[in-house]
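Handoff note, outgoing to incoming analyst
You'll be picking up this chain. Sequence as last confirmed:
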Amino acid sequence: MFVKSSPVNPTSAESTRAVVEEFLAARLAGDTGRLTEIFADEVDWVLAENPAVPWIRPRSTAAECASQGAELMEYTVPEDARASVDAMLVDGADAVLTGHVSGTVRATGKSFEGPFALRLTVEDGRITLHHLYENSLSIAEACTP
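Most recent structure output, in case you need it:
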């Protein structure tokens, strides 16, 4: 049974969508400074730990979260990096994006790919929650020589 915990505030949803779109644009541009401004000082960051993958590690501050994209580009071949968003669902302060990601690990030359789901929460115009679910097995295999 589905129970909605709070009524949807259209203004909140519009604000959330705007911040998420700004996050995506900054991420695409590799603008770490802007990403640092978009992330809250403390972020509930979830990305399954994966010791084989150097850019996947615990994070909690705005600067740590913002640097994840730059670290990803450091360890992968930028020309091979692909990410597409198939859907974005916004409900109040929460947004869920689904899509597909692929790339090549620089050190091994191996490729990875798979679907992803990203849940974000926006409070006071900043991202306070970032939970990413992806094909971690494919990424780990690509990082293993």
